[in-house]
Amino acid sequence: MEHRGKRAAFVLAVILVCAAAGCRNVPRGEAFEDVPVIYIGIAGSSGARQNLEPVNRELKKISGKKAGVCIQLVATGLESGDNGYKNRQLGVDIFGMYYRTYCSCLQKNLLLNMEDYLDGAPALTQVLKEKADPQKFWKEGVYGIPKPISDLHTNGALLNREYVERYGFDVSRIKTPEDLEPLFDVILEREPKLVPWALEKKGNMVLERRPDADILDGCLSGILYEDNEPVVCNVFETEGYEEEVYRAKRWQERGYLAKDVLTCIESGKNQVVAGDAFATECVIKSDETQYDESMYGDRVIVVPFDKPPVLDTEDDWVYVWGISAGTKYPKEAVEALNLLYSYPDVLNLVLYGVEGKDYEVKENGSFGFIEGETRETVEYFNNSKWKYNTLQAGIWDGMSQDLEEDFRQFEASAIRSVAYGFWLDEGQITVDMEKIRQVIRTYTPRLKVGLCDTEEYLREFHQKLREAGAEQLVYEVQQQLDEWIMTEKEQ
After folding, report:
1. Which sequence spans correspond to the domains of the chain?
2. Given a cut of 60, is residue 14 above it in pLDDT?
3. In the chain, count of helices (H) and strands (E)?
């Protein structure tokens, strides 16, 4: 009886979630007068507090006219691409996922093979042509489409504008993270309640986004961008990593980090925007940087560090969109995903909500909030625009009218990894990678934020990695890379 009660409670919760999201838990084909209904899962913070009903009404009209299908959004909560049971309960046909989740979904046979349906999806085909082709280690076919815009980037700092202006800080002199330290000292002295530096996300390193190495195994084997030669090393034993952990230790000792740095769940950006922190790390990338400046420019200043952007294979596939293997409408689902990648009217609804309700079109054609509204008050606000094809959508007020050209120039300036296009076949690795990952999970959290005797902890960390097989792993990754390079030369 207890088990039945829990199951009934879960089903009731799912129904309530669907109702709140604007979807109806009714049989497919009956929901909208026998028009196939395709449900797209909106995950993470982008679906946490949205009123989807008005958006879904507009999506119904637009997608019906454009493709003869009815696209509807479903708030799925946190990223759950490999939770097949939850997605079935919510009726999700299309969902996005991070690359490792994509690999997990492939292994669990949760994804539709789209290969036979791509003739009617030119936008999806184009994206596949532009990205590094993943080696098909599990099965032949097309089971996922990477997000349209590669995640090439460099890093910088997001500073609270009020305090920059109050103390006359010259941000033009900031070229490296170390250049922030004199500013932190002033903040510590004059604003003792303010956190000088907040982590970008919980559990991240003091500086998480490291445009220093292309990690080839998702673990520790990488190629350093400093010389960009096809020589694999253990990145945790490099001078660059040592500099990072000793910087974290210095910032910890000087009081630049919050006392609850290991447990704080609020993002660094939100803390800076709210005035609870002075600075945090941020992505420097044309579309995201311009959006942050246009959205929060009165409260923040974006300062890039003096590092060129970098592009590696996983930057193309950091986030992947797929279709549930259990969809009743595979052809229509592929067509709906194609619209999500290419059709401005659909993208504008997903990214910004309903015109006249969640935003308005300015005289110059850009989008902005209706007078009196903010991101905190509108009924619909998507926090995860980076997952979508923002270059095909409307331009937010204050952003460049030629955003696509800006991005292409940024892309052209990137350092492309010498291993771009290489995918490691973990099935050929003889080392127990999970054992190595466990060592990394054990030692890095405190090294990241300087909450340890860094010298002793780092020495012990290196020793444990070697005992777990790190040197053999680097050797085997190097072998696969060498074979790939030879194959590429022969083609």
Report:
1. 2-150+316-352
2. no
3. 17, 16
